[in-house]
Amino acid sequence: MLQIPELTAHQASAPKVRNRAGTERAIFLAARDLLAEQGFQGFGINAVARRAGCDKQLIYRYYGGLDGLIEAIGNDLGTWVKDKIPEDTGGMFLLTYGDLMEKLSTYFMEALRDDPLVCKIVAWEVSQDTPQVRRLAEARTKALGKWLDRMKGSLTPPKGVDAATTNAMLFAAIQHLVISAAVSGQFAGVPLKTEKDWEKVAATLRRLVRAIYG
């Protein structure tokens, strides 16, 4: 008969070794997915803990609670565009400000289309005024702004062009088109369903950017 050795007192009381980095990542991904699926109505400590398969106390320990999780998600959403364009401050990839804005606007549109949570947050930003949404929006805007500053380096817009207002209008148009596509598949009679539809939008966007910035 197989004899199972008894555990010593030390072995019985020894805590399980946790992979903190893995647990933090699991919590983050669970929170992000839950927010994308259910919005803030289903977003809570207990729900995140269940999705991540961990004790809720670890959420407080690693993130300080829901506020810390929201800030982490906002920071992540503010930097997702950088994965689409090589980060360059010396002009190796981007020779003019027009080059920068053509790439940034095009990839910003692609990133929005590929990320349902970002689309939802953009929609929340213009339809809900809650502390949680404001925290997400501020973190996303701050992170994206820092990245853009690093990207542009010494590049400057043409004289006489109000770049801040122009870029705000370009990004607002992109966001509205992507949200409209998710809701109805079109905007102002322009179809936004197939890749061919979006290729036309991207080509028009590039022409607009070049008409402004050269």
From TrEMBL:
<feature type="domain" description="HTH tetR-type">
    <location>
        <begin position="21"/>
        <end position="81"/>
    </location>
</feature>
<protein>
    <submittedName>
        <fullName>TetR/AcrR family transcriptional regulator</fullName>
    </submittedName>
</protein>
<dbReference type="InterPro" id="IPR009057">
    <property type="entry name" value="Homeodomain-like_sf"/>
</dbReference>
<feature type="DNA-binding region" description="H-T-H motif">
    <location>
        <begin position="44"/>
        <end position="63"/>
    </location>
</feature>
<keyword id="KW-0805">Transcription regulation</keyword>
<dbReference type="InterPro" id="IPR050109">
    <property type="entry name" value="HTH-type_TetR-like_transc_reg"/>
</dbReference>
<dbReference type="InterPro" id="IPR001647">
    <property type="entry name" value="HTH_TetR"/>
</dbReference>
<keyword id="KW-0238">DNA-binding</keyword>
<dbReference type="Pfam" id="PF00440">
    <property type="entry name" value="TetR_N"/>
</dbReference>
<keyword id="KW-0804">Transcription</keyword>
<dbReference type="InterPro" id="IPR036271">
    <property type="entry name" value="Tet_transcr_reg_TetR-rel_C_sf"/>
</dbReference>
